[in-house]
Amino acid sequence: MCGIFGYIGKDMPVASYVEGLSRLEYRGYDSCGIAAIKNGEFFIRKRQGKINQLKCELRDELNSQYPLAILHTRWATHGKPNQINSHPHFDCKKQISVVHNGIIENYLSLKEELIRQGHKFVSETDTEVIVHLIEKYYSGSLEDAVFAAVKKLSGSFALSVISTRTPDELIGVRKGSPLIIGLGRDGNFLASDIPAILPFTNKVIYLKDGELAILKKDEVKIFSFDKKPLGARIEKISIHPQDAEKKHYEHFMRKEIFEQPEVLRKIFSLYVTGNTIRFPQINLKNPFLKKVKNVFIAACGTAYHAGYIAKYFLEKYCDLDVEIDTSSEFRYRKINFHTGDLFITISQSGETADTLSAVREAKKKGVKVLSICNVLGSSLVKESDGLIFTYAGPEIGVASTKAYTAQIMALLLFCLHTAHIRGTLSRKSFCRMLKELGQIPRYQKEILGKEKEIKTIAKDFSRFGCFLFLGRGINFPSALEGALKLKEISYIPAEGYPAGEMKHGPIALIDEYRGVICIAPQDDLYDKMISNIQEIKARKGKILGIVNRTDTQASRLSDELIYIPGLKYQDFSPLLVAVALQLFAYHVAKNLGREIDQPRNLAKSVTVE
Ligand code: AGP
Description:
Blueprint: E1 3-13, H1 14-22, E2 31-38, E3 41-48, H2 51-57, E4 65-74, E5 89-90, E6 96-104, H3 107-116, H4 127-137, H5 142-152, E7 155-163, E8 170-175, E9 180-183, E10 187-191, E11 203-206, E12 211-216, E13 219-224, E14 229-230, E15 235-236, H6 252-258, H7 260-271, E16 272-273, E17 276-277, H8 286-291, E18 294-299, H9 301-318, E19 321-326, H10 327-330, E20 342-347, H11 353-364, E21 368-373, H12 379-383, E22 386-389, H13 402-422, H14 427-437, H15 440-448, H16 451-461, E23 467-471, H17 476-490, E24 494-498, E25 515-520, H18 526-538, E26 542-548, H19 554-557, E27 560-564, H20 574-591
Parallel strand pairs: 18-19, 18-20, 20-21, 21-22, 23-24, 23-25, 25-26, 26-27
Antiparallel strand pairs: 1-4, 1-10, 2-3, 2-4, 5-6, 6-7, 7-8, 8-12, 9-10, 9-11, 11-15, 12-13, 13-14, 16-17
Bound molecules: 2-deoxy-2-amino glucitol-6-phosphate.
């Protein structure tokens, strides 16, 4: 939910520090700040607003060089977004500074005790407790004070700590929120996520929960919280810096929408050879997949919608009983797991707090955990038994697009793989389905080629104050996802609904002031969908039909149409519907002048509950 960036080494210009921080802005952007140290003095700038505004304030300092600094971009949890609550935070004597990502659950009791001991607080944040706690324990060694302080904290925290009294060290702490070390040529870095490190180095260490790192300009030491020295696990990242840049696109979201055909082609080519599907890191033996009876799926937001599509597929093609829930609900339910059950979780970031908690609950009950994830070094990957990596590359736009269709492709390949092992799909159907799945990138390109028409339709539909997205069967989750895409970047209320539910209430909403998106590929439920469209038409709802080019009925009833290629296996159509509705949402939001890559109140990864 926040972005942390820090560096210690050869002098570096403020502009480079800000560049690193700006690559984390998708994690939170209501306020930001820097604390740098030189000649025993702090240089501090922090403010409400985005990093560009901070950069303007720093315009006379951008060339100034500092050997040590910590920076932060915030998504407010405790205390409203303003200058005084922005990070970094300081102790009473302004000799120690901290930036934090996470939530300190016991901050109130700690704050009361520290105030009784004479500490003066200036902000409403939970974070400020940390720096006063370090001050309380400081007696000459910053690392000892940090070790002592973290023992008192409960909740989730990734910290970066510096002090004018020990200007030769930068301390990083990880417990429940991600923190990565970058090993550079002239110094070492701390960051919440890979994109911030990419311009400086490709050598990283993923800190694990319960670890504290002491970075000096030419060395890194890692310890457990009880001060046991740990080995440094250096990894090389294969992502190139430009993968995390906008290039010629106006928004990351539009870039990532257009990257989807290439992403799906890459996934397909990495996991499919001829008519064989292989997942090198799945770590689930064939006998297990042959015997499994119950599958549980938990995820959040868009990832949940991908899981919902997998549910339909696993039931239909693998003869499995599948239950799905949002992670935030799943983790508190009393689920009766049985030996041999499979728990599948899906997460682009691999750091979503509720999803991590759901995984931990499942593992406590001895259930095998398979993760579909897009960040190799993430907590989720480290805590799962098996992994299907989605190879989507960094997804910077807060609204998930390429990660979503990558998750669906990975899940559909897993379903086919499992159906083959369980013998619930004939070899002939398996090969035919695999062949068509391999054509999806080409079909997605066809839809992307219709952006101009979609933009015109979006402009016309932008006038509506409320939307309904309707789908049936495997495209009911497509309706949920289309509604989420629209609402999270345009701020227009939008609801995804199973079309068959319309007469049980939502049809009361329909009148000429409603936009209704009807997903109606020519599949087994097409005729039912046509009846729903007629009901909406009769009540003057403005209908956008998502239809096949060979369509004969929905196209006559709809006010506007977005065509998607017809498929032999229409169960793959969510991969095409998604692209059409992503472009629709993007252009509605653009037409309304919204902050598309950084929508209000949101952040890319929800690392707090
Ligand atoms: C999707 O557009 C949203 N940004 C959000 O719903 C997201 O999908 C959800 O927070 C899950 O994130 P994850 O995939 O990183 O776990």
